[in-house]
Specification:
278 residues; single chain; elongated; Jelly Rolls; 9 helices; Arc Repressor Mutant, subunit A; 2 domains; alpha+beta; 40% helix
Length: 278
Protein backbone atom coordinates (compact mmCIF):
# COMPACT_ATOMS: atom_id res chain seq x y z
CA UNK A 1 0.00 0.00 0.00
CA UNK A 2 1.27 3.51 -0.90
CA UNK A 3 -0.41 6.77 0.01
CA UNK A 4 -0.82 9.71 -2.36
CA UNK A 5 2.25 11.47 -0.93
CA UNK A 6 4.44 8.40 -1.70
CA UNK A 7 4.46 7.21 1.91
CA UNK A 8 4.19 3.45 2.09
CA UNK A 9 5.40 0.48 4.11
CA UNK A 10 8.95 0.74 2.81
CA UNK A 11 12.18 -0.79 4.10
CA UNK A 12 15.16 0.02 1.88
CA UNK A 13 18.47 -0.05 3.76
CA UNK A 14 21.76 -0.08 1.83
CA UNK A 15 24.85 -2.10 2.67
CA UNK A 16 26.71 0.95 4.02
CA UNK A 17 24.10 1.44 6.74
CA UNK A 18 24.97 -0.05 10.14
CA UNK A 19 22.26 -0.64 12.75
CA UNK A 20 22.26 -2.21 16.22
CA UNK A 21 18.91 -3.27 17.62
CA UNK A 22 18.17 -3.16 21.33
CA UNK A 23 15.04 -5.18 22.06
CA UNK A 24 13.39 -6.92 25.01
CA UNK A 25 15.09 -10.21 24.19
CA UNK A 26 18.53 -8.62 24.49
CA UNK A 27 17.54 -6.24 27.32
CA UNK A 28 14.46 -7.61 29.16
CA UNK A 29 14.27 -4.49 31.37
CA UNK A 30 12.95 -2.50 28.40
CA UNK A 31 9.61 -4.28 28.73
CA UNK A 32 8.91 -2.50 32.03
CA UNK A 33 9.41 0.82 30.22
CA UNK A 34 7.00 -0.20 27.44
CA UNK A 35 9.78 0.15 24.86
CA UNK A 36 8.75 -2.15 22.02
CA UNK A 37 12.04 -1.79 20.13
CA UNK A 38 15.00 0.60 20.02
CA UNK A 39 18.40 0.94 18.43
CA UNK A 40 21.27 3.08 17.21
CA UNK A 41 22.07 3.60 13.55
CA UNK A 42 24.97 4.90 11.48
CA UNK A 43 23.58 5.52 8.01
CA UNK A 44 25.29 6.20 4.69
CA UNK A 45 24.24 5.66 1.10
CA UNK A 46 20.72 4.41 0.49
CA UNK A 47 18.22 4.57 3.34
CA UNK A 48 14.45 4.88 2.90
CA UNK A 49 11.98 3.72 5.53
CA UNK A 50 8.26 4.37 5.51
CA UNK A 51 5.42 3.25 7.77
CA UNK A 52 1.65 3.50 7.30
CA UNK A 53 -0.30 4.03 10.54
CA UNK A 54 2.21 2.34 12.88
CA UNK A 55 0.80 1.07 16.19
CA UNK A 56 3.76 2.42 18.20
CA UNK A 57 5.02 5.93 18.89
CA UNK A 58 8.29 6.69 17.04
CA UNK A 59 11.19 8.79 18.30
CA UNK A 60 14.35 9.55 16.32
CA UNK A 61 17.16 11.39 18.13
CA UNK A 62 19.49 13.01 15.57
CA UNK A 63 23.01 12.60 16.86
CA UNK A 64 24.79 13.76 13.70
CA UNK A 65 24.12 14.50 10.03
CA UNK A 66 20.61 15.09 8.69
CA UNK A 67 17.56 13.24 7.35
CA UNK A 68 14.38 14.23 5.51
CA UNK A 69 11.09 13.26 7.11
CA UNK A 70 7.70 13.39 5.37
CA UNK A 71 4.40 13.38 7.23
CA UNK A 72 1.16 15.35 7.12
CA UNK A 73 1.88 16.29 3.49
CA UNK A 74 5.11 18.08 4.54
CA UNK A 75 8.78 17.21 4.07
CA UNK A 76 11.17 18.63 6.65
CA UNK A 77 14.86 18.24 7.44
CA UNK A 78 15.99 17.03 10.87
CA UNK A 79 19.55 17.81 11.93
CA UNK A 80 21.97 17.21 14.79
CA UNK A 81 20.54 18.20 18.14
CA UNK A 82 16.94 17.63 17.08
CA UNK A 83 14.35 14.92 17.63
CA UNK A 84 11.64 13.63 15.31
CA UNK A 85 8.38 12.91 17.15
CA UNK A 86 5.80 10.70 15.41
CA UNK A 87 2.74 9.49 17.34
CA UNK A 88 1.15 6.09 16.86
CA UNK A 89 -1.13 6.04 13.82
CA UNK A 90 0.82 8.76 11.98
CA UNK A 91 2.22 7.62 8.62
CA UNK A 92 5.74 8.83 7.81
CA UNK A 93 8.69 8.47 5.45
CA UNK A 94 12.37 8.85 6.34
CA UNK A 95 14.86 9.24 3.51
CA UNK A 96 18.59 9.87 3.63
CA UNK A 97 19.45 12.57 1.09
CA UNK A 98 22.56 13.91 2.82
CA UNK A 99 25.90 12.12 3.20
CA UNK A 100 25.32 10.78 6.67
CA UNK A 101 22.88 10.36 9.52
CA UNK A 102 23.53 9.00 13.00
CA UNK A 103 20.58 8.40 15.33
CA UNK A 104 19.11 6.70 18.37
CA UNK A 105 15.54 5.57 17.88
CA UNK A 106 12.61 4.10 19.78
CA UNK A 107 9.30 2.43 19.06
CA UNK A 108 7.25 3.04 22.23
CA UNK A 109 4.10 1.14 23.06
CA UNK A 110 0.98 3.31 22.93
CA UNK A 111 0.21 2.83 26.63
CA UNK A 112 -0.54 4.99 29.67
CA UNK A 113 3.15 4.82 30.55
CA UNK A 114 3.87 7.13 27.61
CA UNK A 115 0.95 9.57 27.90
CA UNK A 116 3.56 12.31 28.25
CA UNK A 117 4.50 11.58 24.62
CA UNK A 118 1.56 13.77 23.66
CA UNK A 119 3.21 16.78 25.36
CA UNK A 120 5.21 17.17 22.13
CA UNK A 121 3.46 17.98 18.88
CA UNK A 122 4.26 15.69 15.93
CA UNK A 123 7.25 17.00 13.99
CA UNK A 124 10.82 18.13 14.68
CA UNK A 125 11.92 19.61 18.00
CA UNK A 126 15.17 20.71 19.60
CA UNK A 127 16.60 18.21 22.06
CA UNK A 128 19.48 18.52 24.51
CA UNK A 129 19.85 14.90 25.62
CA UNK A 130 20.21 13.01 22.33
CA UNK A 131 23.90 12.19 22.78
CA UNK A 132 23.30 10.80 26.28
CA UNK A 133 20.55 8.54 24.97
CA UNK A 134 22.69 7.44 22.01
CA UNK A 135 25.54 6.34 24.27
CA UNK A 136 23.21 4.72 26.81
CA UNK A 137 21.71 2.52 24.10
CA UNK A 138 25.21 1.62 22.97
CA UNK A 139 26.06 0.49 26.49
CA UNK A 140 22.85 -1.55 26.78
CA UNK A 141 23.58 -3.24 23.46
CA UNK A 142 26.98 -4.50 24.56
CA UNK A 143 26.43 -5.10 28.31
CA UNK A 144 25.36 -8.67 29.16
CA UNK A 145 25.05 -8.16 32.93
CA UNK A 146 21.59 -7.09 34.15
CA UNK A 147 23.22 -5.69 37.29
CA UNK A 148 25.56 -3.45 35.30
CA UNK A 149 22.73 -2.43 32.94
CA UNK A 150 20.55 -1.21 35.82
CA UNK A 151 22.06 2.31 36.12
CA UNK A 152 21.78 2.80 32.34
CA UNK A 153 18.13 1.71 32.36
CA UNK A 154 17.39 4.23 35.11
CA UNK A 155 19.17 6.98 33.20
CA UNK A 156 17.42 6.04 29.96
CA UNK A 157 13.99 6.33 31.61
CA UNK A 158 15.02 9.70 33.06
CA UNK A 159 16.19 11.13 29.74
CA UNK A 160 13.14 9.88 27.83
CA UNK A 161 10.80 11.48 30.34
CA UNK A 162 12.94 14.61 30.27
CA UNK A 163 12.46 14.75 26.51
CA UNK A 164 8.67 14.88 26.85
CA UNK A 165 8.56 17.26 29.80
CA UNK A 166 11.34 19.70 28.90
CA UNK A 167 10.55 23.40 28.80
CA UNK A 168 10.38 24.36 25.11
CA UNK A 169 13.15 26.61 23.82
CA UNK A 170 13.31 28.49 20.57
CA UNK A 171 15.04 27.01 17.56
CA UNK A 172 17.65 29.76 17.50
CA UNK A 173 18.58 29.23 21.17
CA UNK A 174 18.85 25.49 20.56
CA UNK A 175 21.11 26.07 17.56
CA UNK A 176 23.34 28.48 19.47
CA UNK A 177 23.71 25.94 22.29
CA UNK A 178 24.60 23.27 19.74
CA UNK A 179 27.17 25.59 18.15
CA UNK A 180 28.73 26.29 21.53
CA UNK A 181 29.06 22.54 22.18
CA UNK A 182 30.66 22.05 18.75
CA UNK A 183 33.12 24.87 19.32
CA UNK A 184 34.06 23.67 22.81
CA UNK A 185 34.85 20.22 21.40
CA UNK A 186 37.12 21.73 18.74
CA UNK A 187 38.69 24.89 20.13
CA UNK A 188 41.85 24.07 18.19
CA UNK A 189 39.94 24.36 14.92
CA UNK A 190 40.43 27.47 12.75
CA UNK A 191 36.93 28.83 13.37
CA UNK A 192 35.64 31.75 11.31
CA UNK A 193 32.24 33.42 11.39
CA UNK A 194 31.51 31.68 8.09
CA UNK A 195 32.28 28.17 9.40
CA UNK A 196 30.28 28.83 12.56
CA UNK A 197 27.30 29.97 10.49
CA UNK A 198 27.54 26.96 8.17
CA UNK A 199 27.56 24.60 11.16
CA UNK A 200 24.04 25.64 12.19
CA UNK A 201 22.78 26.62 8.72
CA UNK A 202 22.56 30.39 9.23
CA UNK A 203 24.02 33.23 7.21
CA UNK A 204 27.05 35.02 8.67
CA UNK A 205 25.21 38.36 9.16
CA UNK A 206 22.31 36.61 10.89
CA UNK A 207 24.66 34.70 13.19
CA UNK A 208 26.40 37.96 14.10
CA UNK A 209 23.04 39.53 15.03
CA UNK A 210 22.08 36.52 17.16
CA UNK A 211 25.35 36.59 19.10
CA UNK A 212 25.00 40.30 19.74
CA UNK A 213 21.40 39.81 20.90
CA UNK A 214 22.00 36.84 23.20
CA UNK A 215 25.61 37.23 24.36
CA UNK A 216 26.39 40.92 23.73
CA UNK A 217 29.50 39.70 21.91
CA UNK A 218 30.37 39.05 18.29
CA UNK A 219 30.93 35.40 17.28
CA UNK A 220 34.71 35.90 17.26
CA UNK A 221 34.66 37.65 20.65
CA UNK A 222 32.66 34.75 22.03
CA UNK A 223 35.12 32.26 20.51
CA UNK A 224 38.01 34.10 22.18
CA UNK A 225 36.13 34.00 25.49
CA UNK A 226 35.75 30.21 25.26
CA UNK A 227 39.39 29.78 24.28
CA UNK A 228 40.62 31.88 27.19
CA UNK A 229 38.39 29.97 29.64
CA UNK A 230 39.89 26.70 28.44
CA UNK A 231 43.41 28.12 28.54
CA UNK A 232 42.95 29.25 32.16
CA UNK A 233 41.76 25.78 33.11
CA UNK A 234 44.69 24.06 31.39
CA UNK A 235 47.25 26.44 32.91
CA UNK A 236 46.11 25.59 36.42
CA UNK A 237 45.11 21.93 35.97
CA UNK A 238 47.75 20.46 33.65
CA UNK A 239 51.48 20.27 33.24
CA UNK A 240 51.32 21.10 29.55
CA UNK A 241 53.70 23.70 28.22
CA UNK A 242 52.31 27.08 27.21
CA UNK A 243 53.05 26.15 23.58
CA UNK A 244 50.92 23.01 23.91
CA UNK A 245 48.08 24.91 25.55
CA UNK A 246 48.21 27.56 22.85
CA UNK A 247 47.83 24.89 20.17
CA UNK A 248 44.98 23.20 22.05
CA UNK A 249 42.96 26.42 22.06
CA UNK A 250 43.59 27.38 18.45
CA UNK A 251 46.81 29.43 18.41
CA UNK A 252 49.69 28.10 16.34
CA UNK A 253 51.83 31.08 17.38
CA UNK A 254 52.54 31.06 21.12
CA UNK A 255 53.37 34.78 21.08
CA UNK A 256 49.97 35.67 19.64
CA UNK A 257 48.38 33.44 22.29
CA UNK A 258 50.34 35.10 25.10
CA UNK A 259 49.37 38.55 23.82
CA UNK A 260 45.70 37.64 23.58
CA UNK A 261 45.73 35.94 26.99
CA UNK A 262 47.27 38.95 28.72
CA UNK A 263 44.80 41.29 27.03
CA UNK A 264 41.86 39.14 28.16
CA UNK A 265 43.01 38.08 31.64
CA UNK A 266 45.41 40.82 32.68
CA UNK A 267 48.34 38.46 33.28
CA UNK A 268 50.76 36.65 31.01
CA UNK A 269 50.12 32.86 30.82
CA UNK A 270 53.20 32.05 32.94
CA UNK A 271 52.19 34.59 35.60
CA UNK A 272 48.65 33.21 35.67
CA UNK A 273 49.98 29.68 36.18
CA UNK A 274 52.27 30.78 39.04
CA UNK A 275 49.38 32.59 40.71
CA UNK A 276 47.33 29.41 40.69
CA UNK A 277 44.55 31.18 38.85
CA UNK A 278 43.96 33.71 41.59
Amino acid sequence: MVLANNIGDILEIGEACKERFVDCEKVPELESLNIHLSGISHLRGHYKVGRISPYTHSLFYCNDGEISVTMNQQTLIARKGQIIVIPAGQSFLLELQADYWEMAWFALDDTANWQSFHNLAPGIHSCANGKQIFHLLGHLYYESSAELRAPSIKLLAHYLNQTFNATPISEEIAKLKQLRRDIEKSLHYDWTVETMAQTIHYSSPHLHKLFKRHFQLSPIQYLIKLRMQRAKYLLTNSQWSIQQIAEQVGYSDVFNFAKRFKKSVGLAPGQYRKSGGL
